[in-house]
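ASSEMBLY PREDICTION REQUEST
Request ID: AP-0331
Submitted by: J.K., bench scientist
Number of chains: two
Total residues: 825
Priority: normal
Notes: Please return the full assembly, not individual chains.
Input sequences:
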Amino acid sequence: MAETYDFATIERTWQERWERDGIYRALDTDPRPKYYVLEMLPYPSGDLHVGHAKNYTIGDAVARSMRMLGYNVLHPMGWDAFGLPAENAAIQRGIDPASWTRSNIANMQRQIRLMGTSYDWTREIATCEPEYYRWNQWIFLRLYEKGLAYKREAPVNWCPHDQTVLANEQVIDGRCWRCNNAVERRNLSQWFLKITAYGDRLLSDLDGLDGWPERTQLMQRNWIGRSEGTQFAFAVDGADAKIDVFTTRVDTVYGVTFLAIAPEHPVVATLKGIISAKQSAAIDAFAESLRSKSELERTSLLEKDGFFTGAYAVNPLSHERVPIWVTNYVLAEYGTGAVMGVPAHDERDFDFAKKHALPIAQVIAAPGTEVDAPLEAAFVEDGRLIASGDYSGMSSERARGAIAERLSAMGIGGKTVNFRFRDWLVSRQRYWGTPIPIVYCDACGEVPVPDAQLPILLPADVPITGEGSPLARDAAFINTTCPTCGGAARRESDTMDTFFESSWYYLRYLDPKNDALPWSPERAKRWMNVDQYIGGAEHAVLHLLYSRFFYKFFRDMGWVEGRDEPFERLFHQGMVLYNGEKMSKSRGNVVGIDETAQKNGVDAMRLFLLYVTPPEDTSDWTDEGISGRVRFLNRVWRACEPHLEKAKRISPRELPPTESSDEKALVRAVHVVAKSAIDEVASRRFHFNTTIAKLDELVNAMTGAAQKSPDSPAYLYAVHALPLLLAPYAPHIADELWSRLGHATSVHLERVIEPDDAALAVDEITLVVQVNGKIRARIAAQPGIAEAAAFALAEGDANVQAQLAGKEIRKRIYVPDKLVNIVVG
RNA sequence: GGGGAAGUGGCGGAACGGCAGACGCAGCCGCCUCAAAAGCGGCCGAGGCAACUCGUGUGGGUUCGAGUCCCACCUUCCCUACCA
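STATUS: Completed
Returned structure:
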């Protein structure tokens, strides 16, 4: 009787052996072609569930498959260890963020090992360790030197709950991405990274990212939001001031009937000098009514509103005087914060003009129409210019060029490009992050910390209350001496956005112990780019955009070579539900790794996660579903275990002799799996669900054969081949069987079974016979049957003859080894 | 308002433009058993006694042939939302 499959012991044993033997180490000197597969760096939140397991299982199946295909696979793991939850634990439970984080890392590392993943742990990193964040500071200083890191006052997103500023990318529907509270606008002096300087490259290089999901490329495109237009100045009547506007429709410039500016626009201060005190006060009140509102409330005010300043601007081309309005629909941070109001040709301006009874001047006519009646709605299409001075009669397209040239000649503007995205706000008023390496000196001003003084260590034992910036209150940290003059100085108390760390960690894995540089260029040349990146679609903009920006900067600095995109191919895994519901602690429906490993075994868990849906789809964890995979592994065990001794004599590398069609089918089933496994990684489709379905078919065939001819070479061949086929998906049982088959080294160091055409060939095909596209017969035939013979066979069939009777054959379609279609009239 | 993706049995899903529903889950029947569990074998889209007919959200189109390609619509999900 077959010994039962003791997954608990087997899984533990093999995990220990893999660790001991270091079989997943990626050596820098290995001559084989490299393959860098990476899963997004996890945040060490504490406990893993099967949703996390899906991500790592996909990556691990890819890593193991590529290893068995002969690649030198780099598959590292580490921890995105700075961030708010650690501080929240400190606030709520008085735990030191560092110890909280490190104990979470220890637990998650144990759980990730428990999943049987093939990581090279010698390259592990944690971003909260000084050996890592020192290089954050170093990279920040290089950005600073290039003018790509700068501090300025700007209206920024402020989360009142987390007591910190947020990047635009971290504001989701007007709410904080972390705590979901409504975000406010505040004018604060903050550190920014000049990501907009890379706008054009970030946009155009998306074209080359063929291995990225279309959707993600599109989201980045939309987020970057490049638009070409014209920027030019309106003079303020009666004051020495001008107001720059940006427009994509400079062809409508003769239709300007007002100027709309954001309440925060700096020109407001100047205007106050030429308008009455009463109006000034009213503008302030209006601006204040907006400022006190959260971003969420403000953007949900669909009604356009505004306030006439009492001042006028002069249209540089028509010389008309137009009123200047402060409005709620012009964004201070986009373009110039001022818009030329053309109600006839812009929907928003039209709404605004209607509400405030401003004139509507039509200057574009639809081709072939005359203008008579007043517009019912804004006409936003291109057309022919009317009432536009010298430009009347021109097409919109031509006029845009001509007018831009004119403005340029006048020295007041010209063509320009605007991006929708803004510079990346990277400073945070929080404790648990990388200190920004800047010192403020009364004599020397803003002074970058010299490299030799890095790292600026994050002090321990800082009280964390949730009120204000903890570092700002820590005198021992703040007070320092100026690196330039040696006088008393203060340190920057802000820390970096944690996305800073995660924008370059994939390079640190290449050279994790380097204490002279964040990584050596030779290592980068050896391993970059990341061949396959795997992670959630929620990072489609944030992390992936920042990483692309950093990598382009690194490329410009000469620290990396080749293509200036870090991630060659990208795969987003789908999430995991439990019985159709999202897993969450509050619902109490989280399926944990530890309990699953104990109850079902991790091989079963891995198989289920890969099998239940294609990996990019949402999958539903069910107790019945996982039982199915447990059953499968038991079937594998029963099919192999009693026959291992005999199977030792049969090489899995040589096709066995076959005596019956069943035996031939069994050998074929082996090669069907082998082919599917290779196809799924070669195509980067990673639909291992189809490969595992074919494994099921193989094991079903073996179960049948075990009853009839368990001693046949074909059967024993299947027994010996099965561990090689299972290895990427169920690595423990695979190695156990492999070792019991008499092998001294791990199955994971073996090559795949190359699919063999002879083994894949079938003895007989089913020829499908269609008449006018409808199936009328299925006839068994020889593979490779000649066209004429196929039709002879088809037309000899009684059923087919009945369909053909009395009709003329018009056309014969032949699909070799598959189908004939006889078209009759 | 704008953009994108997807609709296949009771369920998850298979299917280079060529036999729709592989494989699994659930269910049903049988064998084994004193019995149950496990295991093993079989059935499992709809209608029809049958030959056969119908069937991949709806309606068109391309094609010898469409779940697959094109157009329109419906539904669902996702992203984005005054970006001048």
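REVIEWER COMMENTS: The mean pLDDT of chain A is 91.
SIGN-OFF: pending second reviewer
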